[in-house]
Amino acid sequence: MEMINQHDPRSSGESPMSILLRMRERDPAAAAEVEEKLFKPSFHTYGWRSFKEMVLPPRECYFGDHFALGGVYVLQGPGGVGKSRITTSIAMHQVLQLPWCGFSTGVRPLKWLMLGNENSMHRMQADVRRMSKGLTEPQLQLLDEHIRMQALEAPEDSDISLGSDSIRDRWAGTLLEHTPDILVIDPWGEVLYGDANDDEHIRLVIRTALGLLHGVNPNASMLVIHHSRTGTANLLQATGYDAMNYGKGSKALQARARAVLNIAPGDPEDSCKLVMSMAKDNDNRRFDPFGLIMDPDDYSYHVDDGFSLDAWRDDVEGKRTPTAKITVQDVVDALSSSAFPVDKKVLAAELAVKCACTERTAAHTIVKALQQGYAANAKDAPNSMTLGPKALKDKGRAVTHDLKEEMSRDKRG
Q: 61-314 belongs to which homologous superfamily?
């Protein structure tokens, strides 16, 4: 120990590492003691073979293959688009073990703790009541046991900044009380106490939040709800190459996250239509952007099969003409001109050329024609379609009208 004290790097102006290297040459045993005392714990490292052969527990995912326990994730979008409601809906489906818009929700109900100061108790109650429509008593009990939501009952409840010792104590007490599997922070900007554009400040807040969370559950996940930038040019960044630039402020949060979901309004005249895209996924392939439709009756979400990314971008940019390039009538006309079932892909390609649109837009219009009953899947020809019952009915009316016109002309003649 005398040698350790004599060569304690903290009591000398010399570099700690240079002293240690010199000690290793003279007295390896003493150097080992110094290293153990001053330089442990070191980072955990493994060799190539160890990584290849080690048996790791599988990732426990709770939103498709994209969100898993232990990770940091971000859901971001403009104010008023419904980020909180979407998150609550995902949490409800996860606990009830129901898929959400085609995404699986894990293998067991997880404990959710949702902390935030953006939504009043009346707003949260309204959401919960609508989402509870049609649920059974056992389902309601399961939700009550697994989802906790912050209530803004007193003025001080709205202060959730991690820059205050007393507020951090409230965080710690709440986390200790509920030991969540998933912590939702809503919104991110309210836990900051410095410059939102300062990368180092953002990293410090992330470390603080994760330190509190992992202190009670080392395998817990943190889901951050974050505001995006506004305006037409920024809205277009919800998808494509600029998707990681969609969020406000420093991008240190998005860099730290394993996956980032972007939410954007889908129609300026219909707040129930949304667009969801994946800006980043470090662990899986990103999914293609798709449309969402919220049912205003029970706040459930469904995939919009008629969504066209090209048409949405044209709408945002103001390029779209008042009338669409392709309509359901174009699909009906194309099917009417064929005496046999038409392959869907072939039809989409032909309509794309005829209507000067993309094949994807044509395919979405074909789906819309199917949904509205103007087209139907052919029974004996897989992946093919024919005129639907509505189109056949309308066609019958048109034929009858034409015959009457012809008979009337004959009489006049």
A: P-loop containing nucleotide triphosphate hydrolases (3.40.50.300)
